[in-house]
Amino acid sequence: MDPMDLSYAVIGIGALLAGVMPRLVARRPLSVPIAFLLLGMLVFAVPSPLPDPDPLADPALSAHITELGVMVALMGAGLKLDRPFGRDRWSSTGRLLLIAMPLGILSIALLGWWALGLAPAGALLIGAALAPTDPVLASDVQVGEPSEEEDSEDEVRFTLTSEAGLNDGLAFPFVYAAVAMATMGAAPGAWTGHWLAVDVAYKLTAGLVFGLGTGWLIGRLSFRPRARSLRLAEHAEGFVALAATFLSYGVTEVAGGYGFVAVFVCACTIRASERASGYHTVLHDFIEQIERLLTVGILLLFGGAIVGGLLGPLTWQAVALATAVVFVVRPATCLVALVGSSLARPERGVIAFFGIRGIGSFYYVSYALAEAEFARADLIWATTGLVVVISVVTHGITASPVMTWFDNRTPTDTDVPFAPTPAGSAPTAPRARSHEAGEPAE
User: Fold this and answer.
1) Neighbouring-strand partners of residue 428
2) Alpha helices in 80-202 (DSSP H)
3) Which residue segment(s) compose the domain that 80 sits in?
């Protein structure tokens, strides 16, 4: 049997199920990622000539596969955000990025050093890889497709979507720090200056600038040409979203910046160029289909890696750490970050709980292991894989019932904050939630 022929058959089955499965699990305590993770385990458990999906066998290949999945998901996340950027409107997102994520990286790194006995470089790597939330596997708790209303999203879905869109790129400096420690030593003086100047300041700035630039260019080409025949929006070509993804990512990476930051910024810039156009829905739907296919493929390979022994190096300390990442570190750091915010307690609780980990974590571990030698790489991968399994199962089962409860609950005066109003003005009622945005992603 030709392994490629069998691979084509598996890909075909996976693609077919990708179109059917979301409708079968909608409104049920089950998620598409759980189904495809189990399918991958089943497929690779049967003796066959399929290729070995062990990510440790070829870290560079694993990095490229997961890199593609993340960048496509980031474009989809940016395109479906209706809310314009603003300090107050994005304040919850800022709190999670500037407070919760660094606290998460520090907490997980300390646990990795203390509980797993990892070297400082490995501990920092596992902290940087596991702290960001995932834009790929979190569709059940994110906003829906684009609409013409700027404030159509509820605060929970908006915060989770925008956080996942930005924290993947913002975690990269810490991954670079781990690589620098692995290659130059843990002494800060050997690498800190270059890291601050290049890996933090320059690369983040380049990601922002090139993301804005490519987004502006695609927006102009889509909506602004005088000749209607040249306007991309007039032709409803969805593949332009894929072009924007690769262009923003590729140009930024060539310039030495963070491509993940650029892709998300590019998507938000395109979205802001003409908010009332239905073309955004065309772009979003196309990129969402590509994202779904890539997600299916990666989860099938992940399931095969589990069957092949990816989790074999786990110790009880690693199991405890993985459990703590999902159920303790994420909720605690988020609740700390949201102290003093205008969010109600239920909103804070839902945001803190749904810190979904996934393919972005795989990318960072694969990338770092391809760039440098890390002690106990097998344990780092096993712990990362277990965190993703716990997250996929826990959040996959709870996403639908929790979000349904959240949408249908009856707010009280002490539960939902009112917007501040000038003296003598009537109080403003809180913005109604968008139930349309709460529909399960298909």
Assistant:
1) 419
2) 91-95, 101-114, 120-130, 155-170, 172-184, 192-194
3) 34-45+57-408
The CATH number of whichever domain residue 248 belongs to comes to 1.20.1530.20
Which among 393, 410, 399, 411 is positioned nearest to 438, based on CA atoms?
399
Give residues with Cβ within 8 angstroms of 9, minimum separation 6.
Answer: none
pTM attached to this predicted model: 0.87
- Torsion sign over Cα 380, 382, 385, 390: negative
- Residue 174: predicted pLDDT: 96
| Residue 184, amino acid | M
Distance of CA 324 to the CA centre of its chain: 20
CA distances from 201 to 197, 259, 410 (A): 5, 14, 45
| 434 lies in some domain | no
> Each residue of 201-214: pLDDT tens digit?
999 999 999 999 99
Give, rounded to a whole angstrom, the gap between the first and last alpha carbons of the chain: 35
For the segment 328-385, what is each residue's pLDDT rounded down to a tens digit? 999 999 999 999 888 889 999 999 999 888 899 999 999 999 999 999 999 999 999 9
| 418 within a domain of the structure (yes/no) | no
What does the block give as tokens for 352? Answer: 């803190």
Residue 267 lies in a domain: yes
Angle at 208 between CA 361 and CA 259, to 5 degrees: 40
Helix residue ranges, H only, 274-376:
279-307, 316-324, 330-337, 345-353, 359-371
* Element holding 65 (H helix, E strand): helix 59-79
Q: Give the H/E segment covering residue 391.
A: helix 377-408
Nearest to 199 by CA among 175, 182, 223, 217: 175
How far is Cα 252 from Cα 227, in angstroms, rounded to an integer? 30
DSSP 171: T
Domain count along the chain: 1
Measured in degrees and rounded to the nearest 5, phi and psi for residue 426 equal: -75, 145
* Residue 357, C-beta contacts closer than 8 angstroms, at least 6 positions apart: 130, 133, 134, 325, 326, 387, 388, 391
In a domain, residue 272? The reply is yes
Both structure tokens of 248: 């923003």
CA 362 vs CA 129, 220, 246, 295, 366: distances in Å: 8, 35, 20, 12, 6
